Amino acid sequence: MSGLLPVAEARARILSGVARLPSERVALREALGRTLANPLSALRTQPPWDCSAMDGYAVRASDVGRAPARLTVIGEAAAGRAFGGRVGPGEAVRIFTGAPVPDGADAILLQEDAERDGAVVTAQEAAVLGRHIRRAGIDFATGQELLPAGRRLGARDLALAAALGHPAVDVGRRPRVAILATGDELVMPGERAGPDQIIASNSFAIAAVVEGEGGVAVDLGIAPDDRAAIRAAIDRAIEEKVDVLVTLGGASVGDHDLVQPALAEAGVALDFWKIAMRPGKPMMAGRRGDMLALGLPGNPVSAIVCSLLFLVPALRRMAGREDVEPAKTFARLGRDMAQNDRREDYMRAALTFDSDGVAVATAFDRQDSSMLRALSDAECLLVRPAHAPAADAGTPCEIMMLHHPF
To answer: Residue 196: which residues within 8 A CB-CB, separation 6 or more?
Structure first.
């Protein structure tokens, strides 16, 4: 393929071959970050009975419509220990937050509005019918569907699932992603680098992206610029039955770019290998059976940006999520921008806010795709469409936020 594929078309072609993975049942404590395969409905009503929202006394509003009013305390109700009797005329029950409201009572007299003397309590303020009582089912009722399929479970969702009565949930299986770095120039952090070598960093970033999306990263290490060694590593990924193979480096068509022929030898049918984007033009995508193969560029910024635009959507589709497309929002340019060429640009940028609270994205001066420091410093990617005209500072623009762990 000689032409450059637009970013949106490249992503659509990748996603067209990606399906949701089978589900599995896990204990609720193991479900953080997992994606619900089936909706969750309430197995009980919450709260299951009228309960007190405050510490005080359960009373009949008609008895304390005016203050002062004297009542006889006939018992006590606490969370988990209900009062078994009934509140009659001129009676009160000492009650604590979360306790069921006794039969006959229809108001809560706050403890700070009451004076207690043995078995007699005097209301210093009038109590209002229904005040400080949480009605049964005010949160949810049995049978209500409250967590939809495709929801990625966070801490709040786990709390709700537990309250609904679910000790375990059905979630999408974690996508398994093999990561293979390639190149004679690479050594691992902590290893001694030769005069013509650099430290490998891409595999750490891509593994973090995978795990941040709920996947499992399978590290295949570093393969030298040797076709047989690269092919052997690819065969390992196939044997491991991973869902995605990500190669790093060697994605172009030079004499030392051996990933493409090695993938072809391993039976990977390549779909495309050039994208109209900056950084990240020399990216490959293909399939071998159920395994998606993505060949990311060797430059670290290019690899990370490509992972956000193409790998993350694929992982989300596999997990069963609905929000697979990269989220973009609007800001205003913090500086003048020149006319763009045929490649969609993802520029590292700082994000500030003007006096009106409007986001302002200012592209860094240097946008070299090898500069990890600039990517680490950036709060967002400033998206410049292909052939975008020159734009003055203050012009609306699109940005992609760089959230943790990216």
So the answer is: 185
Residue 3: pLDDT band by 50, 70, 90 thresholds?
confident
For residues 181 and 289, membership in a common domain is answered with: yes
What pLDDT score was predicted for residue 379? 96
State pLDDT tens for residues 99-115.
999 999 999 999 999 99
166 shares its domain with 177:
no
**Interstrand relation of 120-123 and 69-77 (parallel, antiparallel or unpaired):** antiparallel
Residues 103 and 226 in one domain: no
Q: Which of 268, 322, 317, 313 is nearest to 290 (CA)?
A: 268
Q: Which of 59, 225, 189, 37 is nearest to 126 (CA)?
A: 59
Q: If DSSP codes are grouped into helix, strand and coil, which group holds residue 161?
A: helix
Q: Which of 290, 319, 348 is the last residue of a domain?
A: 319
Closest CA to 129 of 64, 81, 177, 218: 64
Does 281 reside within a domain? yes
Over residues 293-314, the pLDDT tens digits come to: 999 999 999 999 999 999 999 9
User: Tokens in use for 347?
Assistant: 């520029």
pTM: 0.88
Q: Are 198 and 186 in contact (CB under 8 A)?
A: yes
288 lies in the same domain as 337: no
